[in-house]
Amino acid sequence: MGAAGGVGSARGLSRMYSWLLDAFEPGTVADIPRPETSGSDLVPSSPAMSVEQRFGRGFMVPSAEETPARSATFGHEGAGGTTAFADPGGGLAFAYATTRIALGPPDTDPRAEALITSVYQALRTG
Questions:
Q1: Rounded to the nearest 5°, which phi and psi values hold at 55?
Q2: CA of 85: how far to CAs of 17, 32, 40, 75, 77, in Å?
Q3: Angle at the Cα of 12 (from 114 to 36), degrees rounded to 5?
Q4: How confident is the model over 4-18, as pLDDT tens digits?
Q5: Shortest CA distance to 64 belongs to which of 54, 51, 76?
Q6: Is 109 left (phi over 0), alpha (psi -120 to 50) or beta?
Q7: Angstrom distance (rounded) from CA 75 to CA 96
Q8: pTM for this entry
Q9: Contact 116, 68 (CB under 8 A)
Q10: CA 54 to CA 115: how far, in whole Å?
Q11: What is the C-alpha to C-alpha distance for residues 53 and 51, in angstroms, rounded to an integer?
């Protein structure tokens, strides 16, 4: 069951995503980010704001245009700004965990966004 209250460190989450990239067959990894459902998520949404989310095989899957990777990624966001994902095309497993909660809809923590953008900039410039 997704969103069952898992607890882990950033290191543990990134290791899990790295393991998924290494242990699964390439065809399986390529199938994970294929969208299965999408639409307004009724849990974080309100009458004033609709939060659109898309899920693949057990993971959130943003569109390629929504990520600095500009490719298919899969992962999940957590409470207050925590985020973790795998980028199969880039061979990257990433996780960010925080002890200070950022209020707002999922995927809007500027700290996580700045760190993710910096990681991809560093990878591109080598």
A1: -125, 140
A2: 7, 12, 21, 4, 8
A3: 75
A4: 567 789 999 999 999
A5: 54
A6: beta
A7: 12
A8: 0.81
A9: yes
A10: 23
A11: 6
> Which amino acid is located at 102 in the chain?
A
DSSP letters along the chain, please? --SS-----HHHHHHHHHHHHHHS-HHHHHHTTS--EEEE-TTT-BTTB--EEEE-SSSB---GGGSTT-S--EEEE-GGG-EEEEETTTTEEEEE--SSPPPSSTT--HHHHHHHHHHHHHHHH-
Residue linked to tokens 């998520």: 41
pLDDT tens profile 31-62:
998 888 877 766 665 666 666 777 888 898 88
Q: Are 92 and 23 in contact (CB under 8 A)?
A: no
Residue whose entry in the numeric block shows the structure tokens 């985020």: 83
- Write down the residue that tokens 């700045």 correspond to: 114
Q: Which sign does the torsion angle of CA 75, 90, 71, 82 carry? A: positive
